[in-house]
Amino acid sequence: RQSPPAFRHYLIKRAHEARKRIVLPEGDEPRTVQAAAQCQSRGIAQCVLLGKREDVLRVAENQGVTLPDEVEIIDPDEVRERYIGPMVKLRSHKGLTEPMAEAQLEDTVMLATMMLALDEVDGLVSGAVHTTANTIRPALQLIKTKPDATLVSSVFFMLLPDQVYVYGDCAVNPDPNAEELADIAIQSGDSAIAFGIEPRIAMISYSTGSSGTGADVDKVRQATELAREKRPDLLIDGPLQYDAAAIASVASSKAPDSPVAGRATVFVFPDLNTGNTTYKAVQRSANVVSIGPMLQGLRKPVNDLSRGALVEDIVYTIALTAIQAAQNDA
Ligand code: ACO
To answer: How many Å separate Cα 113 from the centre of its chain?
Structure first.
């Protein structure tokens, strides 16, 4: 069992070892400036802030933050032009022209995503101001999925009092079909492994086994079968209700033969309504720190923030991103 303090320590230590360069397109956003200062001084990442130098420095000063000299500040207006050609090259098959690229590069998330596409930085963190869709759409278009992935999805690390759960997908895919849900389960299991959590994957539904019926239950059952076929090495079971997945005493009556029920560490939700609502309910009503959403399946790491993110959340998301970048090198 990975305890939350140990998990936090593990993230910081591994990010420190990774020594990665992370671009923050919301470079003059106050929490982002504070997070960059902390990441730099604690050796978590080399941060690149996009913004006008005078704006960034004013924001830092207003907050009483001393920005270490090593934090890079890049003025988007000074560099935009150099990304127009490469962006057109990546998207001309979609009808992107130079004037369109120039206009789209006004958006600093798009600009930062091009920096990542050209390997000028190792990862990107945004979303303190932008919505999830606006943070990840440029990545879906320009960075694309890994060769072995069929889609991009996401997980949250939920820091419960005595253990860390992985919840997927609570941020990206509105209504995955059975094949997509199977891939989300596999990606979430692999993310658990990559971050030191033993994956026991529960495919969540309103039915445990055949206790309930309906097309939504059938989808989860089919996804479970597909995921098992694709990855016999992973422990996957479903459909399981949340209580049967998480609580041993419930599991012993509802799913006594399941290798996952009662001891799940990875919870895969059937659609975004369920996943997003559950993560927020647990986070807000049980006061559980949640780290993420961490995107999985992208060729290079891009991670989103909740617009309610605290400075600490941004620091951990930068750490996650640096670790993912190092994993991609391996
Ligand atoms: N994986 C891989 N690629 C994808 C995915 C995916 N899951 N979804 C879309 N794409 C690609 C498409 O193939 C397309 O590529 P192309 O332009 O090269 O052909 C590109 O992304 C754009 O596709 P659209 O269908 O136009 O995608 P759109 O931008 O409409 O939607 C998005 C993608 C933004 C992820 C959408 O599914 C979405 O809004 N999801 C919900 C986000 C959200 O609101 N989450 C809840 C809040 S998160 C929180 O609370 C922290």
So the answer is: 15
